[in-house]
Design brief:
Produces ATP from ADP in the presence of a proton gradient across the membrane. The V-type beta chain is a regulatory subunit. This is V-type ATP synthase beta chain. Belongs to the ATPase alpha/beta chains family. GO terms for molecular function: ATP binding; proton-transporting ATP synthase activity, rotational mechanism; proton-transporting ATPase activity, rotational mechanism. The protein has 480 residues and is an alpha/beta fold. It folds into three domains: 4-76, Thrombin, subunit H (Beta Barrel); 79-355, Rossmann fold (3-Layer(aba) Sandwich), CATH 3.40.50; 366-479, Bovine Mitochondrial F1-ATPase, ATP Synthase Beta Chain, Chain D, domain3 (Orthogonal Bundle). The protein has helices at residues 133-138, 157-167, 189-202, 219-239, 251-264, 278-286, 315-323, 332-336, 366-390, 397-414, 424-435, 448-454, 457-463, 470-479, and strands at residues 4-6, 10-12, 15-18, 28-33, 39-48, 51-56, 69-76, 78-81, 89-91, 107-110, 121-122, 128-129, 149-151, 169-170, 178-187, 208-214, 243-249, 291-292, 298-306, 326-330, 343-350. A hairpin with a 2-residue loop joins strand 5 and strand 6. Helix 9 (366-390) crosses helix 10. The chain is elongated and about 85 Å long.
């Protein structure tokens, strides 16, 4: 028997309060009927005895305290799922908005996911090829990993997200399916149109599931968006054996919606007004990435977040860094230099990278070239810092050499076109060409056998047209 409650006790922002409710459950869905016959959906977010606080998805405008009828549905929010969700576009609550009708569901799944026994997790191995040299070589994305992108206002994180969707693929010969679940939260109409148009023009829409929450949509829908996206990803990965890459942008918009919702409930705020449970809430999203024992598919996450005022100590990037396995940081200075993608190499890392690269995955020399590029670029920053004090003309020959390497590294390795898709072999060969510009004795992070195999100074000088750089020639001769 389904009971219907007439009237509301209180309306506060996106929340309504209902008294004298029997047998209610936390997160239970409710149907709210307006006096004009329309219905809205909501869910129970707080229970105190027989008093329930209900979150209304479509907002509380035109709701009446006396004529509104509320019915409890007896189940949490569920999303209809089938293989046909590939190529479809949904709003933040999982409702199709592409004009192709409803999804013919094979099953319905709770958007909060299922509890996952940590013992059943499989350690992530192998990698996802994004076609972007700085990511593939220096902070490799491993299947089953959660690797966020730390961006800032005005930086090209949207373009980078589109490029990753266009180019990403798994590198194996087993013919496993690869798909992308793309969730945009709090974006403007023109940004949403940009995402849709870019995927359609690139011809990848048939392997993409899109969830779009616009900035003028209710904040409650924004809180649901990443959960709906991850539910779709888990279904495709664990029931259809696909490797799914989930891209959530922008997590900061999600957290701001959570802050607004928490304030409406009257909860005690934490740092910068965010709720005290922000860490556990973000963990409930990020920890849904991974590989489960016995499953052939995987769920990999790239959450994108914009740091207010480029402040990495802000609660959102700070807590995200605790939960995830590394980060990709975008650099505003590189953007000002016209370099795309502006990946800041030194503050970026992938903590699982070491176990998913090398022989059998990418190439045997991957770890060596990556370590050496990091070390050399760190010396570039030291040389630039010194040059800012004493002037570039007063630098030693070795420091001038590193300055030259830094310019080449940024212009040829980090910088690549929006439509340029580099294979892992092309990326590693380019890395060796850049390292070969330096004297051989400066490359101290590489075994001699590997160095003898890949070091070729003459080819590097020819490739980068450095024949007139006398300092490079002299130092190369000294190194030899």
């Amino acid at each position: 028997m389904s009971l219907q409650y007439v009237g509301l006790s209180e309306i506060n922002g996106p929340l309504v309060v209902l008294d004298n409710v029997e047998n209610a459950s936390f997160d239970e869905m409710v149907e709210i009927a307006l006096k004009d016959g329309r219905t809205r959906m909501g869910r129970i977010v707080e229970i105190e005895g027989k008093r329930c606080v209900i979150q209304v998805f479509e907002g509380t405008n035109t709701l009446s305290l006396t004529n509104t009828k509320t019915r409890l549905l007896g189940h949490p929010m569920e999303m209809p799922l089938s293989k046909e969700i590939l190529g479809r576009t949904f709003n933040g609550a999982g409702v199709p908005i592409d004009g192709l009708g409803s999804v013919f569901a094979e099953k319905r799944a709770d958007i909060n996911g299922q509890p996952l026994n940590p013992v059943s997790r499989v350690y992530p191995r192998n990698y996802i090829n994004t076609g972007i040299s700085s990511i593939d070589c220096l902070m490799t994305l491993i299947r089953g990993q959660k690797l966020p992108i730390f961006s800032g206002s005005g930086l090209p994180h949207n373009q980078l997200a589109v490029q990753i969707v266009k180019q990403a693929k798994v590198a194996d010969d087993e013919g496993k399916g690869f798909g992308v679940v793309f969730a945009a939260m709090g974006v403007t109409n023109d940004v949403a149109d940009y995402f849709k148009r870019s995927f359609e023009e690139a011809g990848v829409m048939e392997r993409v599931v899109m969830f779009i929450n616009l900035s003028n949509d209710p904040i409650i829908e924004r809180i649901l968006t990443p959960r709906c996206a991850l539910t779709a990803a888990e279904y495709l990965a664990y029931e259809h054996d696909m490797h799914i890459l989930v891209i959530n942008t922008d997590i900061t918009s999600y957290c701001e919606a959570l802050r607004e919702f928490s304030s409406s409930k009257g909860e005690i705020p934490g740092r910068k007004g965010y709720p005290g449970y922000l860490y556990s809430d973000l963990a409930s999203l990020y920890e849904r990435a991974g590989i489960i024992k016995g499953a052939k598919g995987s769920v990999t996450q790239i959450p994108i977040l914009t740091m207010p005022n480029d402040d990495i100590t802000h609660p959102v990037p700070d807590l995200t860094g605790y939960i995830t396995e590394g980060q990709i940081s975008l650099d505003r200075n590189l953007t000002a230099m016209g370099i795309y993608p502006p990946v800041g190499v030194l503050p970026s890392l992938s903590r699982l990278m070491k176990d998913g690269i090398g022989e059998g995955y990418t190439r045997a020399d991957h770890s060596a070239v990556s370590n050496q590029l990091f070390a050399c670029y760190a010396k570039v920053q030291d040389a630039r810092s010194l040059a800012s004090v004493i002037g570039e003309d007063e630098l030693s020959d070795a420091d001038k050499q590193y300055m030259q390497f830094g310019k080449l590294f940024e212009q040829h390795f980090i910088n690549q076109g929006f439509d340029e898709n580099r294979s892992i072999d092309e990326t590693l060969d380019l890395g060796w060409s850049l390292l070969s510009v330096l004297p051989k004795n400066e490359l101290d992070r590489v075994d001699d056998a590997v160095l003898d195999q890949f070091y070729d100074h003459e080819a590097a000088v020819k490739r980068f047209d450095l024949k007139e750089e006398t300092i490079i020639k002299e130092l190369a001769n000294q190194g030899a």
